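Hi support team,

I submitted a single chain yesterday and got back a structure, but I'm not sure I'm reading the token output correctly. Could someone confirm the output below corresponds to the sequence I sent? I've pasted both exactly as they appear in my results page.

Thanks,
R.
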Amino acid sequence: MVIRKMNNMFTRHGRWIFALITLFIIVSFVGFLTPGFSSMLSFGGRTNKSVGIAFGKNISIDEIRDQATRYALVIALISGTDPGNARVLEGAEQNAFASICLLRAAQQCGVVVSDDEIAAFIEKLPRFQNAERQFDRNKFNQFVNKELNPRALKVSTLELAVREFLTQQKLSEQVIGETITTPAEVKAFFNMLLEKYDVSVMEFKAADYMSKIKLTEEAVSKFFAAHRKAYIIPDRYDILTVEFGYDDFMKKAAAAVTETAIKNYYDQNNAGFTRQEKDKVVTLPLAKVRDTIRRQLMAEQAQTLAEDAAQQFALDAYNATQSQKEAEKIFRDMAKTNALAVSDCGWLDRNSAQLGQYRMEPKVLTEIEGIYIKNPVSQPVSGDKCTFVIFLKEHQTARPAELSEVKDKVRQDMQRQ
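Hi R., thanks for writing in. Yes, this is the structure output for that exact sequence:
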């Protein structure tokens, strides 16, 4: 029944559906045929290395990364998720190249998005609305302070992300608009979308039958041999880290946060302290929000100080260890000279949830994957609570797994089947 309905949909509305699918197929093939596309994010640090061409212009790794950041931001805005969510970031990285191609196509077609359209889009987002579904400036400012500022992103980055999203929407509408759809087709499609089904469901939970499955060693070995390509030990990295914790710089940051700085912040972000109270709009006086502003400015200043210290240490360590046989000893000695602790994190891979005492963050893992043994010191990577400088001791490339390493996983897969 469902298959037949889908066939009817493509039969009746195939012209404009085909136009939309064609657009995405073209973009997909551009990405697929571009040399180095699949590994474009494996390089460490900033680089203008080109990974492809769209509309006669190169696309660099930096552009891919920046586009992925903005794409993740707009996904988070719409879905209400955290911009740092690993699945959001992964999806953004996979779609970044296609987005750049679409945006360049939009530029060729003269597609323009106005500031008013951006403002209207943001004001309608559920995460920025109050109980009455009105735009809540406080919620917007909270998003800026909690999600953008800690990631060193600006409001202008948010605006650009929305502009690019709306530009791609307009381009899609233009493609569809070039195909003539009759009123009868629209009505038939509308009716099909609103069709309802009365369905009865009976659940058979796999967990209820697991105990009945008896697996012999011979059966497990045969299954593993038949599906060996599915069992891979991923790239593994043995690393050291030097961590520049933001709390460690809080005392120094406090001295830098003056009354003048607090007053300037209050004046420049006055809307963030304005709220609706009954029938009037009230702006909280500086005296009531001074401590809140001070804490925020101290946190921002502490992170900046930590990042500056990490940048200087990383630069010195990079220059001192490059192509050196005793690079690890040099790195440890430099850390000791600077009164910095070195954490031996051991072996990590893409599935690692922890980085020492901290939660593994996607951008930290991305930096680790881009380090080379000859140049073992990373760029500083700012996390939620500290900035990391990473030293790569050893790298084991991905390889096929042995049965003894994945036997439990093989058994689970057999039981699920």
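A quick pointer for reading it: The two ends are 26 Å apart (CA to CA). Let us know if anything else looks off.

Best,
Support desk
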